[in-house]
Amino acid sequence: MQLFIGFDVGGTHIKHGVIDENGNELASGEYDTPEDEQSFRQQWQAVVEEHQQKHDIAAIGVSFPGHINPHTGQAAKAGSLAYLDNVNLHDLFGDLTDLPVTAENDANCAALGERWRGAGQDYDSFVCITIGTAIGGGIVVEGDLYRGSHYRAGEFGVIPVGPEGEGMHEVASTSALMKACRRALALPEEEMPDGEALFERMESDVHLREAIEKWAHMLSRGVYSVISMFDPQAVLIGGGISEQKKIYTLMDKYLQRFEEWEALKVPILPCKLGNQAGRLGAVWLAKQALKHGHRAPC
Fold first, then answer.
1. CA-to-CA distance for 129 and 241, rounded, in angstroms?
2. Which of 96, 194, 236, 268 is the most exposed place for a label (fewest CB within 10 A)?
């Protein structure tokens, strides 16, 4: 049974785990994302060596923010890890371990994780839209990841959905929702209820309900646009907010108003794997790369 290390590099935390070839996680952990490249190198290497002391590791998969060429390893933009912009990830990780390392965009990894062990198992073609502080996405077409000509496919956050052409990042993300709810409730950030409490409270607070409804309308515009472009079998919604059942009811309300919705309609489902999806997808890619004898997954 081959074992792999999966990393999910985020702006705040780096999650990692030892995962077998069937997608079962045997050990997991996380640490705060370092603030400079040298610390990033040291801590990443220490985690790898710690796992190697306990397990016979075959390869490593890394889910990484930003725009990544998976064939060359070049990260043109490393998300919130600005100190790794324009760094070649194959060279970076190759200096820290002798194990084969595969690196891929985090939203793409999340989509592949769901395809392997989550809500995407029943679909050959689907879109995964991740809703957090920003909006990201991964596109699977006939079982393969679609990256685009410049490895930037799935940047759904830039789709203009607002009344003044604002992108999804600005008006349909979780951060946009919380900002709108703060205005509606006239509360400072530290006194804001959590997401679940907000959705419960909207039933009795007309101003809060208006804010959430407007946010759901903007999100629905983006989801409708993505469906019309890719004609997937399903859309998967990721991020913590995907667990709130009311967002699907609200989206359906607005999607029904779009002229071609009945013709375009597909299931819109929550992702199943939560924050495990990224490292599972990264391991799936590492497994494929090892099987085919090269770094690049396709």
1. 12
2. 194
What pLDDT is recorded for position 294?
A: 57
Using CA atoms, how far apart are residues 116 and 129, in angstroms rounded to an integer? 17
Question: At what angle are helices 246-255 and 206-230 packed, to 10 degrees?
Answer: 60
- Pair 241, 174: CB distance under 8 Å: yes
- Cα distance between residue 235 and residue 269, in whole Å: 6
Closest CA to 109 of 286, 270, 278: 278
d(CA 254, CA 244): 17
The single residue listed with the structure tokens 């070839």 is: 21
Output phi, psi for 144, to 5 deg. Answer: -110, 150
pTM for the whole structure: 0.90
Phi-psi region of 165 (alpha: psi -120 to 50; beta: other; left: phi over 0): left
Please tell me the distance from the alpha carbon of residue 90 to that of residue 75, in angstroms, as a whole number: 10
Mean pLDDT per 10-residue segment, the chain (298 residues): 95 94 95 95 97 96 90 84 91 95 94 96 96 92 93 94 96 94 88 84 92 97 97 95 92 96 96 93 95 59
Residue 292 DSSP SS3: helix
Q: Residue 128: name the closest of 98, 156, 170, 160 by CA.
A: 156
How many residues does this entry show for the chain? 298
Q: Which long-range contacts (C-beta less than 8 Å, at least 24 apart) are formed by 207-210? A: 208/181, 208/184, 210/184
